[in-house]
Every structure is written in C-alpha cells, then in structure tokens.
Specification:
This protein is of the alpha/beta class. It contains six helices and ten strands; from the N terminus they run E-E-E-H-E-H-H-E-H-E-E-E-E-H-E-H.
C-alpha cells in the first residue's frame, strides 16, 4: 500500500495578517479548515503540521494534527523556501522509520479546499505518468500574458513576442496560475529532481469560486463572505 503523507506548513510571524494561521475565520481557526478537509479526504495515512510556533502547534493538535517536531527558527523566516521546509519534515520522519512515497502539501491559506480536491490530486498522481499534480485556476483573459503589456524605454510593448497577433483578449490562449489549494508529488521527484514539480506536472483545474488564497485582509474578508454563503 502506498504511504501518503499530508504536510501542512504553518509558521508564526505572519506580517500581512498577524496570527493568520490560528486567527478565527467564520468562527474557527484558519488552520482548522485545512485539517478538516485533509482528515475527511481518507487518502492520507499521516497528517503532519510543520510549525515553529507553540500556539499554532496547540491549535493543530486540537484539530487532530500530528506535531512531532517544532520547526527550527532558521526554517521559518519570510524567505525560507518551501522546499527546505518539506525536506526538513521528511528528514525528521525518516528518523522514525517513516518514508512516504507520496507527499501532499496543504497550505492553510486555502480555506475553500475540499476533501475531494485532495482525493482527486492523489488519484491523478497515481494513475498518470507524471512527477506531480498542482491545482490551478484560469487567469482572467484580460490578464493573459499574451494580452498584457509592458513598458520599456517609455514605450508600451507586448509583454510576449507573440502578443501582437492578439487584438482581442478573448482570442488569447488560456493561461493558468497555481492557486495553492493542493500539491501532490512523489518523494522520488523531490529527491531526484530537487523540486516538488519535477519535469511533468499534471494540472488540477479548479473553478474560480472554489479557490482562494488568504494573504491580505481583503482576501480574508472575501473568504469570510464565501464561507458565509456556503454555510447559508
């Protein structure tokens, strides 16, 4: 049976929204939304919280997460690469004799994530010849890289060389951005390619209304509004 690890990175010290990961959102801590969706997915044999903060660890334990370690401060800075956080968690778990074949990265800033998102990501990874799966949402056509412009030497130019052929935004090829809802990848992808994406990443395309990333107070209010509509 394939060992599948759910990993939730949640550091303290958020500057945009102080205490973001445990701040109440629509009645419960932001972190709780990720914990509940992950536990309900039924595809994760372990669910680990990686944090540097004892208060976040306490909330995580209350939400049913394992907190086998406290992340060292040097891996909880604003500019700490996520890759290093993942590698630290895997190295620690290896000392316990646990080496998962699949890692599912679940950032707590995506409170609209559902158990089905997680199940689908793992199923796609296992059924396709790919290194990873990442959730994405469509970029509004007006922001397509083929349609947007740049300024060089006080001149307005197409951002991409091929952009001049698109005079109407609806004609531009669709573009997508990673939304952070779910990343699933093989451990061997991380070890052999030094990346969670590898050479072949399958897109899990989400609708705009099932995706949000909470980074600012405006995002927070938008998430509050959406969750209120869902619960209503």
């Amino acid at each position: 049976m394939t060992a599948v690890l759910g990993l939730i990175p949640a550091r303290g010290g958020s500057k945009g929204i102080p205490g973001k990961n445990i701040r109440p959102l629509a009645g419960k801590p932001l972190l709780a939304y990720t914990a509940e969706a992950a536990r309900a997915s039924g595809v994760l044999d372990r669910l680990i919280l990686s944090t540097d903060a004892e208060d976040i660890a306490a909330v995580g334990r209350s939400a049913g997460l394992e907190v086998p370690f406290i992340r060292p401060p040097e891996l909880a800075a604003d500019d700490t690469p996520m890759l290093a956080v993942i590698q630290h968690a895997l190295a620690y778990l290896a000392t316990e004799g646990y080496t998962p074949e699949i890692i599912v990265l679940l950032q707590p800033t995506s409170p609209l994530r559902t158990p089905q998102h997680i199940r689908t990501a793992v199923a796609e990874l296992q059924s396709r010849d790919v290194d990873s799966v990442a959730s994405v949402v469509a970029v509004p056509a007006v922001y397509s890289p083929y349609y947007v412009m740049k300024i060089e030497d006080d001149r307005l130019l197409n951002f991409l060389p091929g952009g001049q052929q698109y005079t109407r935004r609806q004609d531009a090829p669709p573009a997508y951005c990673r939304d952070g809802t779910v990343y699933a990848f093989w451990r061997k992808t991380l070890e052999e390619k030094g990346s969670i994406y590898g050479d072949s990443c399958w897109p899990l395309i989400l609708a705009e209304d099932e995706s949000i990333t909470v980074d600012t107070l405006a995002d927070w209010q938008k998430a509050e509004d959406r969750l209120a509509r869902f619960s209503g």
